[in-house]
UniProtKB/TrEMBL annotation:
Species of origin: Strongylus vulgaris (Blood worm)
Lineage of producing organism: Eukaryota, Metazoa, Ecdysozoa, Nematoda, Chromadorea
UniProt keyword annotations, A-Z: Signal
Signal peptide annotation: 1-18
Protein name: VWFA domain-containing protein
Entry superkingdom: Eukaryota
Length: 371
């Protein structure tokens, strides 16, 4: 009996420690609005253990960074389970409430998960139920089934107005190339806990940022990379003046280049658009010397949907490079249907004040061998 009571006591202590860890709040941003986080509990996850790792990462690394409160809330969906009605209509307005929701979902996952539910059906659940069109989604998925993703992409373009960020737990961003996500972060589920800055990138995508917290002043690590990248600088008519171009180049010089780990195994090339009569930017890239496997970092202030749609059509047909867009107009929505693996929206005047964008860009430029 004493042994049984001791086991119960240890379990209570363990749960208490886990809850208090999750409830610690050190947000990167002061946000407003709401976000919806979709957790993969489908057949793509090999076991409940993988689902548990995913939920634990959200609980311990994402929730504390979201700045939950009266002005910003989070809701959660668990896919791949029939028992979902109870959880989908709750918005948590504090880390403690969010942790409670996630622990309940973890119990559901333990008993009833790994069911077959397609990405399209998950999106239909979102659209058919209660989530506001302006709430961004953080979509965790281990699927790398291109047919399934294409079917979901077609549905998303027609019916989903929310901005979607994908965390590709299969570790393959390329499978999501044509999905209309504003960002795709590829990381294997087993490596979630070891990625120090992914939580920043997720937090940046969840909310309308009103203020960067001073607690965000942590230094981003360098990446040890291999290969090469091409950085395209916007020098076109979309920039209001040379001053804006200078701010853009200064940001790349002072905040991006130091993070790239340039050396004998990793190189960078640069293009400045808008400087003379030449072919369109993406055509220049294709027609010139850049290797198809080199990722492109495309700085652009354009928010002209016709121009971006024309470029998107060309990119799908001819560009095999992975493209990350830094949308200097501050509007990610204009790039919704462009085949980018990530879109980071920030006004050119705010570049210097975004402390960790340099890490997010570095993460997209290279095959990372070590954080």
């Amino acid at each position: 009996m004493r042994q049984f009571r001791l086991c119960v006591l240890l379990s209570v202590i363990s749960l208490s420690q886990c809850s208090s860890k999750c409830a610690e709040s050190s947000p990167y941003f002061t946000c407003n609005g709401a976000t919806v986080i979709v957790i993969d509990g489908t057949h793509h996850m090999r076991s409940y253990t993988e689902v548990d790792k995913e939920i634990s990462y959200i609980e311990n690394h994402v929730i504390p960074r979201l700045g939950l409160g009266k002005d910003f809330k989070a809701a959660f969906m668990l896919s791949g389970t029939r028992d979902h009605e109870k959880w989908e209509r709750k918005y948590a307005s504090s880390p403690k409430e969010a942790c409670s929701e996630l622990q309940s979902l973890d119990d559901v996952a333990r008993k009833n998960s790994l069911g077959k539910e397609s990405l399209k059906k998950i999106l239909q659940r979102i659209v058919n139920e209660h989530f506001e069109f302006h709430h961004p989604f953080i979509f965790f998925s281990k699927s790398d089934d291109k047919d399934e993703i294409s079917e979901a992409a077609e549905y998303a373009r027609m019916y989903v107005r929310n901005e979607i960020t994908v965390v590709a737990l299969g570790g393959k961003a390329s499978a999501w190339r044509n999905f209309p996500a504003v960002s795709v972060f590829a990381i294997e589920v087993d490596n979630l806990d070891s990625s120090k800055n992914l939580s920043y990138c997720i937090a940046e995508r969840t909310c309308s940022i009103t203020n960067e917290s001073s607690k965000c002043a942590e230094s981003s690590p360098y990446c040890n990379c291999n290969g090469a990248t091409v950085i395209v600088i916007d020098g076109t008519h979309h920039m209001h003046s040379y001053t804006e171009i200078d701010k853009e180049i200064s940001y790349i010089e002072n905040h991006v280049i130091p993070r790239l780990g340039l050396g004998k195994d990793f190189k960078a090339a640069f293009m400045l658009s808008g400087t003379r009569d030449h072919e369109k930017i993406l055509q220049r890239i294709v027609n010139e010397h850049f290797e198809f496997h080199h990722p492109l970092i495309l700085f652009s202030k354009s928010d002209d949907k016709d121009e971006i749609s024309e470029a998107a059509e060309y990119a799908r047909m001819y560009v095999r490079n992975e493209i990350t867009v830094v949308a200097l107009s501050g509007k990610a929505s204009a790039w919704r249907n462009f085949p980018a693996v990530s879109v980071f929206a920030i006004e050119v005047g705010n570049l210097d004040s975004s402390k960790n964008l340099g890490y997010c860009i570095a993460e997209r430029t290279c095959s990372i061998t070590n954080e």
